[in-house]
Amino acid sequence: MIKSCKLITIFLLICTLSFSSVLPVIGSELDDIYNKQEQIDKKIKETETAIKQKEQQKQKTLAELQSLNSSMEKTYNEIEKLENQLVVAEQYINDTQKDINLKEQDLTERTTVFENRLRQIYQQGDINVLEVLFQSTSITDLLTRFEFLKRLAKNDTDLLTVLETERATLEDKKVVLENKKADLLALKNSRETKHQQLQIASTRQKDLVKQIELQKETYEKMLDDLEKQSKVVAEAIRRLQSAGGQRPGWLQWPTPGQYRITSAYGMRFHPILKTQRFHTGVDIAAPYGSNAIASANGKVIFTGWQGGYGNTIIVDHGGGMATMYPHLSKYLVKVGDNVKRNEAIGKIGTSGWSTGPHIHFEVRINGDHVNPMPYLRK
Fold first, then answer.
1. Which terminal CB of the chain, N or C, has fewer other CB atoms within 10 Å?
2. Averaged confidence pLDDT in the chain
3. Which pLDDT band, with edges at 50, 70 and 90, does 155 fall under?
């Protein structure tokens, strides 16, 4: 009767959990629900694969966002340079246009004077050299009159040359001005294109940020589920581990020769969520496939998939103490086995929510996690 009540209690507890949470199945007497456990394990493994894929997508998104930020900064600089070039070009066009206007006005006035002079000469007819000779009062006067006529003719010729030269220069300036206007239009078009590119990039950036936030929420939910599952583990251990026996005074380091702690027990800055989270064990880096050993004498009360913990072994040491060995790649023991301190019980792996080969070592006292470091010896 007691045995049946125990079975019903555990089964009801499993049914109350979400499909992504697993209650440790303890003891060989629970063979009748192992099939259900296997189905749940399969679903959790599929979820774990999806989580890893989501992490890869997130890293890719962050890389795209970083690249996009660099591209946007470059575009901003290009637009600023275009704005400066536009100011210079517009000032040049304005100054050149003013100069052309003045030149055209001056050229028009001087051309009018020259045309009036030609009209007067035409109306009066050619100056008769004999008239200049006979009207001269002396040789000196005669020479003076001839010199004046020569200078007058030269001035007319020079004026005509200057007018033609300035007119040609004016036409050249007009051509340059038109080219500058074309350049200005090209600059404005380029600026507009850059603005459009920047707008598209900005929209893309917002979409990326939104995508990352959604991914972050997914991870937070996964982590919350893991923390809830940790409480379920604690409850299961409290219900099913042996209350009797003497608690071991110390625990052997679970990874022989591998002592690098990658994440300590307690509050930590989560590398994925970028938030403060409580870490319920110590992460110890170790080569994939290396041994995980029992930290003390005890009895194996669980081997199986444990959600985010992945492949997990739980050993009951008596006196309310148990140790957990998650993220394994292989089991070397089964439920019900008695193990000795330093005995290899599993192989290091990356199963569950893991970023690399390691073991997430936990110590539970009456089901609650405690800091393993005061108990551990190397």
1. N
2. 73
3. low
pLDDT digits (tens, 9 = 90+) for 63-90: 776 776 677 677 677 767 767 777 777 7
DSSP bridge partners of 321 = 318, 365
Are 97 and 177 in contact, with CB atoms under 8 Å apart? yes
313, 329 contact by CB (below 8 A)? no
Nearest to 262, CA basis, from 290, 243, 241, 281: 281
Measured in degrees and rounded to the nearest 5, phi and psi for residue 238 equal -60, -40
Q: Are 277 and 268 in contact (CB under 8 A)?
A: yes
User: Where does the chain have alpha helices with state H?
Assistant: 2-16, 34-124, 129-135, 139-240
In the chain, the largest separation of any two C-alpha atoms, in whole Å, equals: 161
Domains of the chain (ranges, CATH numbers): 70-211 (1.10.287), 244-378 (2.70.70.10)
